[in-house]
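Exercise: predict the fold of this chain.
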Amino acid sequence: MSFNARSIVNKIDMFKATVCNSQPDIIGITESWTTDKIFDSELHLDNYCIFRCDRLLGTRGGGVLLYVKESLHPVEFYTKTAYGEHVWCTIGDLLAGVCYRSTNLAI
């Protein structure tokens, strides 16, 4: 399941209801608009691990979130790249991730 949220924080109740109904294994979100001022606890979903990459440039927008069911035992995976907003994890031999490339940002 994937979403372009344009601020997940102000849609968190609707998001949680959608996830509760469909119960996907993996959820990718672009345009999360999250910052270091937003705690993981505010984005928490029961039975899911969260991986996040907030936009660091101090501008509004951007950011990605990746939710994976805890039962899949995901492990965060770090890449060596200068690419902007991305987050990855491994699930067994599977590499899963979310990337967002803004047309306003240079790579």
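Check your answer against the key: DSSP finds two helices and seven strands in the chain.
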